[in-house]
Amino acid sequence: MDLMRFFLALSLCFSFSIEAQQRFITVASTTSTEQSGLFRHLLPIFEQKTGIQVRVVALGTGQSLDMGKRGDADVVFVHAKPLEKKFVAEGYGVQRFEVMYNDFVLVGPKSDPAKVGGSKDIVAALQKVKAAQAPFASRGDKSGTHFAELELWKAAAIDIAKDKGPWYRDTGSGMGPMLNTAAGMNAYALTDRGTWLSFKNRGDLVISVQGDRRLFNQYGVILVNPAKHPHIKKEMGQAFVDWVISPDGQKAIAEYKIGGEQLFFPNAKR
Amino acid sequence: MSGAHSILPLTLREVRFAAGGRSIIDGISAEIAAGPTTIILGANGAGKSVLMRLMHGLLRPTSGEIAWREQGAERVRRGQAMVFQRPVMLRRSALANILYALELARVPAAERERQAMEALREVGLVDVADRPARVLSGGEQQRLALARAWALHPAVLFLDEPTANLDPGATREIENVIKAFDASGTKIVMSTHNLGQARRLGDEVLFIHQGRLVERAAVDTFFRQPASAEAAAFVKGELPWT
Amino acid sequence: MSTLGEAVRGAIGLMAAGDPMLGGIVALSLAVSLSAVLLAALLGLPLGAAIAVGRFPGRRALIVLLNALMGLPPVVVGLLVYLLLSRAGPLGEMGLLFTPPAMVIAQTILVLPIIAALCRQSVEDAWVEYEEQLRSLGADGLRAALTLVWDIRFSLVTAVLAGLGRALAEVGAVIIVGGNIDGVTRVMTTTIALETSKGDLPLALSLGFILIALVIVLNAAAHLIKEAAQRRYG
């Protein structure tokens, strides 16, 4: 291992003026976005263009927005429209811009106990899962995905908080760990396509339901409000927001593929 | 060694020491004056070690008084040194151990090495000055302990059974060093149960039995004509363990 | 079990390939944990020694507390330091959150009780042997404590190593205060957590083996140093 790298890292540990050394912003985003690999593709392009390093802290949507409220991030990049709107309405964010969407899919065991494979109707599928009491793994962590899942149960006229039984497994974890658990117990689970495509521990799980419009997952980007937190790097943060919704940024998003498949569909409003 | 401003005499007044509910020293009064080598004699468990530590200040009496002539605590401390039954050396060279003691005694840095080497010379350990102290033999370590004490030029040197763990050859070397201390004017206070050693080195004997000072006499008198029954029994080797 | 075999082969492959990203992650892990252990030792060794040698009211309670703090949950420490360093928190102005110094701070807090408590135990044991002689020579209190610490320095290596092991192995504190940022605050344990959550178990395991190998090497080196010193100094 390179000794030079060690001493560089060592000096970093004791340097308390990192901000003076490097231009960077902190973006709070979600685990699903990070784990899809999108940022690894996107951020170097932005950095090359502007010289701004983007440091992504990947947590759940709830935690990311909380980071924004505390002023620990300069920009939030999440996928839970009602929560994002509330964030701006309460004055924590400057303005919300739509960036891209991807879709959720319902994955489940090959054996398909609820008999929902191949369906395009997510609501009907969820009702069948409940009826069959087939194991279902939930994020349970205030994330965008969790939020979307709860909305879908509502759409299926199911009060999941009241009607859940032992078949409903609240894992309280991020996307990856939840999928690990689902694979381990052969359960149905709602996941975004991006994470699924790069997830390697599938076990016996396959995509059961996809294509329903209600499974679309909209991402928004918001600059944290400098009025609330004067230290926010607003110029650099704004540069990032502007780029991500610009034709260049949108093109970069569209170009990101896994195994030839495009993950995210840019839809910033012009 | 003991200059005009000696800390002696040491006066003990009705000194008592109890620990763990047991009385170990049961009211001892005595005056320890400069000059004669004082031997503290007694059977095991009589209280010799505790008495030495009380005099040296490592223990505080439960009641009674221990007073030196000099009042300044610093002077009193500096005027004494003690050598224990088992030498305790730091993990450093022999020389460094003496340097440590000199540093504690606030000897100026420039002087320390010279004085340390002189002490080593006095006990014949110059050759092992740079050897790690703890790899030296038991006898060598005890000599080193004496060298360390020598370097401090104390007015009083306490020795608690210094040769109890050593073979006759080493014992003789230690006794020679003690004689040299004595010759240079240091007051020697030593506990032992080696009767031959007491006769060889001592001038007076304080005989302790069950925590009390039972008899005090010149060495010859003590061994020829012990005044008390306990002393007589001890000298004859008949005193039971206390 | 094939995962295990795959993981071992993967570990060797990763190390042989000398991947710069892996190198950076390992370098940062070592830098963060060694810095934390260094700070914890500078603070904890004198603290432990002072408690060992001192006599004051509440001493026994303090010793019990110190021993108990050895088991501080890393994730709780992480959360507390996060709240401290967050912009909304008291030290927010320093802008330390999500940087390596924040990780060093969190790990120092974790490791300090371990080093202090183990040092206290060792010094207290040694004090039994040294106390009378040191006091006779005029070394009291802190002076004696520090002399002892230096004298038993090689057996204190064990305490320091225990601290280092804890620091290198923990993930709960560094992931919260560091944010596991790619290229900035990503260390071995957080990478293992990430790869596991991405379902890439062979990669996670490979990194795990590298981490274990690292810890073994450090331990072996320290043990050899200790033995050599004991032979030399007695």
Characteristics:
heterotrimer, A: 270 residues, ten-stranded mixed β-sheet, two-stranded antiparallel ribbon, C: mainly alpha, 10 helices, 0% strand, globular
List the helices and strands and how they pair.
The complex is a heterotrimer of chains A (270), B (242) and C (234).
Chain A: H1 3-14, H2 18-21, E1 24-30, H3 31-35, H4 38-50, E2 53-59, H5 61-70, E3 75-78, H6 81-89, E4 93-109, H7 122-132, E5 136-138, H8 144-155, H9 160-163, E6 168-170, H10 175-185, E7 188-192, H11 193-198, E8 205-209, E9 216-224, H12 234-245, H13 247-255, E10 257-258, E11 261-262, E12 265-266
Parallel strand pairs in A: 1-2, 1-3, 5-6, 5-7
Antiparallel strand pairs in A: 3-9, 4-7, 4-8, 4-9, 4-12, 10-11
Chain B: E1 10-19, E2 22-32, E3 38-41, H1 48-56, E4 63-67, H2 73-78, E5 80-83, H3 94-104, H4 109-123, H5 138-151, E6 156-160, H6 168-183, E7 187-192, H7 195-201, E8 204-209, E9 212-218, H8 219-224, H9 229-235
Parallel strand pairs in B: 3-7, 3-8, 5-6, 6-7
Antiparallel strand pairs in B: 1-2, 1-4, 8-9
Chain C: H1 2-17, H2 20-53, H3 59-69, H4 74-85, H5 100-137, H6 141-151, H7 153-169, H8 172-178, H9 188-197, H10 201-233
What can you see in these coordinates?
The complex is a heterotrimer of chains A (270), B (242) and C (234). Chain A has 270 residues and is of the alpha/beta class. Chain A has helices at 3-14, 18-21, 31-35, 38-50, 61-70, 81-89, 122-132, 144-155, 160-163, 175-185, 193-198, 234-245, 247-255; strands spanning 24-30, 53-59, 75-78, 93-109, 136-138, 168-170, 188-192, 205-209, 216-224, 257-258, 261-262, 265-266. Chain A is 44% helix and 24% strand. Chain A is globular. In chain A, 49% of the residues are buried. Chain B has helices at 48-56, 73-78, 94-104, 109-123, 138-151, 168-183, 195-201, 219-224, 229-235, and strands at residues 10-19, 22-32, 38-41, 63-67, 80-83, 156-160, 187-192, 204-209, 212-218. In chain B, helix 3 crosses helix 4, helix 3 runs parallel beside helix 5 (138-151) and helix 5 (138-151) packs parallel to helix 6. Chain C has 10 helices and no strands. In chain C, helix 5 (100-137) packs antiparallel against helix 7. Chain A binds chain C through residues 1-2, 5-6, 8-10, 12-16, 18-19, 26, 31, 35, 39-40, 55-58, 69-72, 173-177, 179-180, 183, 198-202, 229, 231, and chain C through 20, 23-24, 26-28, 30-32, 34-35, 86-88, 92, 94-101, 103-104, 179-182, 184, 194, 196-201.
